TrEMBL record:
The keyword tRNA processing does not apply. Pfam families: AllG (PF06545). Coiled coil: none annotated. This is DUF1116 domain-containing protein. Keywords: Plasmid.
Length: 417
């Protein structure tokens, strides 16, 4: 990490060390899969959550706005987009940022009261975080700004079949410790953001005993769901990362980032020493992209995203060196990916004790973005993110850089606290 010379350096470093000790001690556990309204505190039936710091509904544009409208239609507040627009305008339906209620959302991050969410808990504190289930590899995904009859059918299936079946086997298994899966997946080619192949496989294998004891219907539903794609575990990784990041919150003088998220409009961060305050700036910029055939950079659209919570705890783009297979999916090459991870050590406060990277001789992943180090070096976090297209749908994957503006604002606030 860059050397600090300010008069407040020692108190801040002590606060940072305390934050990281809390992070290292956290062992998140999946405890259930339940309808959002049943488990998320403050989740009223007419509230829809979405990615990024809170902004008024009128400020949402493009695919994120379409996802919110689709969610209102799905929950029965309107029959079409015009009716959904009116429902938001009159306050019949309200929108909030996911993290206001302790949830995290993938891409547009739309979460409604009836949707099943994974419930991940810190056993030491009882703190919980929530995330919707992966919608599968289908083209028509609500969190990629598409609401169609196929989207509705898929959401219904997740609500009525996958969620309840998964909840039953998770409870039968007595919950699932997630940190050991994350640890091992890092040594098998995952960085737990854009690549979750190993983690999904490890989770499925761990659940086999509970699945074999389940009903024939539950077993069939879950075997089909787990085998339909590699990204199921991303939602568990996000909720686990949120729980781990929460342990670092609210430490006076601490300059460690505790959350990163963006909407279609802006990118925001939260910092331990500043509590729930969002420091905001422009959207990230892409450093490398790998687009599906037939698409060009002009087709890219930001619809929001909170999966960057994984980077906050040393996963995702920070750990690119652990996931070299991603060079085919996200652009770049192995040497560049390793260099990105090595650069992140310069802006992070520590190396993780438990999460390690084989190609770096099992060095701990860089963890604990320090806003002071970012302000001094001008280096910003690397983000591994899926790429949405204009008009909806996923059109590829990429490597982005967070904007520096929120980190400069946060560094100033911590210095003056």
């Amino acid at each position: 990490m860059a050397h600090m010379t300010t008069g407040r350096a020692l108190p801040t470093l002590n606060a940072n060390a305390e934050a990281l000790e809390r992070l290292f001690a956290c062992g998140p556990r999946l405890v259930s899969v339940s309808p959002a309204a049943d488990v998320i505190p403050g989740m009223e039936g007419n509230r829809i959550l979405t990615s990024g710091p809170d902004i008024p509904f009128a400020s949402y544009t493009g695919g994120q706005r379409d996802a919110l409208l689709g969610a209102a239609i799905y929950e029965g507040f309107a029959a079409d987009h015009a009716g959904a627009e009116k429902a938001f305008a009159t306050g019949e339906v309200v929108v909030s940022g996911c993290q206001r209620l302790g949830a995290v959302g993938s891409l547009a991050g739309v979460t409604t009261a009836s949707m099943p969410v994974v419930v991940v808990e810190d056993p030491q504190t009882g703190d919980r975080a929530f995330c919707t289930l992966y919608e599968g590899d289908a083209v028509d995904r609500l969190n990629y700004g598409v609401f169609s009859s196929a989207t509705r059918e898929n959401l219904d299936y997740l609500r009525d079949h996958v969620g309840p079946a998964l909840d039953r086997v998770v409870r039968r298994a007595g919950g699932v410790k997630l940190k050991p899966i994350i640890q091992r997946a890092l040594t098998m080619g995952d960085e737990l953001h854009s690549r979750n192949t190993a983690a999904t496989t490890l989770f499925t294998r761990q659940m086999l005993g509970a699945i074999t004891q389940a009903s024939t219907e539950d077993g069939q539903v879950l075997s089909e769901y787990f085998s339909s794609g590699d990204y199921f575990f991303l939602r568990l990784a996000m909720a686990a990362a949120k729980v781990m990041a929460n342990t670092m919150r609210g430490i006076p003088g601490c300059s460690i980032v505790t959350s990163m998220a963006f909407s279609c409009r802006e990118f925001g961060i939260q910092v331990s020493g500043a509590g729930d305050q969002w420091f905001r700036g422009p959207l990230p910029t892409f450093e490398a992209t790998k687009l599906n055939p037939g698409f060009s950079p002009s087709d890219i659209e930001f619809m929001g995203g909170e999966s960057t919570i994984t980077e906050v705890v040393g996963l995702g783009g920070v750990a690119q060196a652990a996931a070299l297979p991603l060079q085919r999916a996200s652009g770049g090459n192995a040497a560049v990916m390793i260099a990105r991870t090595e650069q992140m050590y310069r802006i992070c406060a520590a190396e993780h004790r438990d999460l390690r990277i084989p190609v770096l001789d099992y060095r701990g992943v860089p963890v604990g973005f320090d806003v002071r180090a970012i302000a001094e070096t001008g280096i910003t976090p690397v983000l591994d993110i899926g790429i949405a297209g204009v008009g909806g749908g996923q059109i590829g994957g990429g490597v982005a850089r967070a904007p520096i503006e929120p980190f400069l604002l946060a560094a100033e606030a911590i210095a003056n606290s």
